[in-house]
Amino acid sequence: MLDEILNPYYLQVAGFIMINIILAISIYITLSSGQLSLGSAGFMGIGAYTSALLTIHFELPIIVGILAGAVVAGIIGILIGIPALRLQGVYLAIATLGFGEVVRIIFVNWESVTRGSIGLSGIPHMGRELLRFFKDIGFDPEMMGLKNNQFVYLLVLLILVLINIVLIWFFIRQNKSRIGRAFAAIKMDETAAEAMGLNITYYKVLSFAQGAVLAGFAGALYAHVLAYISPADFAYHRAIEILIFSVFGGSEVIWGAVFGATFLTLLPEALRFISEYRYMIYGAILVLMMAFRPQGIIDASVLNWFKKKSKSKRGTNHGTRTNKNN
Amino acid sequence: MVLELTKITKNFGGISALTDVSFKIEQGQIFGLIGPNGAGKTTMFNIITNMFLPTSGEISFVGEKISGVKPHQITDKGICRTFQNIRLFSQMTVLENVLVGGHCRSKSGVLHSVLRTKKQRNEENVMHAKSLELLELVGLFEYQDVIAENLSYGQQRRLEIARALASDPKLLLLDEPAAGMNESETDDLFDLIKKVQKRGVTVLLIEHDMPFVMKLCDRIAVLNFGKKLAEGTPEEIQNNPAVIEAYLGSEEDDQIA
Predict the structure, then answer these.
(1) How high is the pLDDT of residue A130?
(2) Is a pLDDT exceeding 90 seen at residue B25?
(3) How many domains does chain A have?
(4) What is the extent of the structural domain holding A35?
């Protein structure tokens, strides 16, 4: 039974869900200040290549590589953001899509460093490095009755889940503060927001850079989970896919991004038994969705409904405790 | 002297929206800016808040030159405005709208906000209390959790005033606050602006409702085709033949006020 659940294939799909959630949050956070950026695949690639090259050539620890990947993506995000954020709506979308393609073409053509379209292999694998570490300190997965590869994938998944919990916590808190209100105000009416004393440029660059850092971070994790990357992983269809996660799930709330990434990563896997039709069904669901629920599956009213339900449950359990949300 | 405008000129291409307009507003005054449609009143507001740069001329606010300062810094210095065509954050609640207005009077950055440090929590509590007090002032306390776009027109106008007051302005600019209001709403607005004045805020307003302006303002300037036609107390304005001719119509001074 446990062996069934701890199937490495399931664990790996779950790991990809976690990485995709981070990517979806990166889009959510830029959208929350009213900016449609399609550069996430580019930033993801920057994070992935930075971390991969640093760990391969300089033998830095994986964690240093991943953090460096996120930081480099963030810095490039700021540099791109300052001029690009003068653009609005579709113009920004096209400019950032162009940026993503430029990044990909650099990866293809800078062969001496990136090995071109063949891609980078032999990237240190997060799970295997950890396994080696555990074996060094005298812990063997056999002691828990796990096979080596089960242990590896389980450990990686656990780390990714923890990262996601921290990220979601971070952005929920940010969203409930004056920073989140500033993002929302800029999204709703830029002129009014500026007249109320908000430094529009600062907040726009902030949310754009946060999105870039997250995408770079997710890209670096991706590199060390897969141990192989190539420029094709970061092409424009990836950018569109990430956007769809957030838009499908609901781009107004962070849970929309979480739901969208989870559901849309699982769907093609769940539909595997009708192999050639699965992407058709995937597409049909998206079309229906845009027709009947353009704001995405999860929005504020859905969340309120859940809150009310859980509150009324709590009410029956604990008598008349009033719960004040702030 | 709160605001001093010296020879403000603004040209849009070949059209001059304002020509050599000067006036001064004293601390604590309610100052009215009136004139027919297209006289340049809203352009003047946009210049004072630096949304437009004047072609020439100088603005000084509490003795400091403010030409060329960014719009959000103007708010920081103590000038805040409302809009002629209501620009609330329509999907936010009433309370959130006012909280955004207090943005430039708070400082917590990303780290403080995420870690909810003591400083940040104190700041949020102070902002909440102040926002609620302002909602009380404009009579929207009971509506604090309502989404702004669901308010009535008159309520939305009052919410805009509360939002602007949240930035602790020394000078409040109101762009046609009584537009589209019925008589009782206009009376409430009159009381509200008087209360705002009592808080020590200087008010500059654009308005077309003449009885309202004449009753409310301490001093009035009249613009016509981008030029200042007259300036004075409401009585002086009502009796100024040039104003009557250009603005109120020459045939009959139909018992104003």
Answers:
(1) 84
(2) yes
(3) 1
(4) 2-235
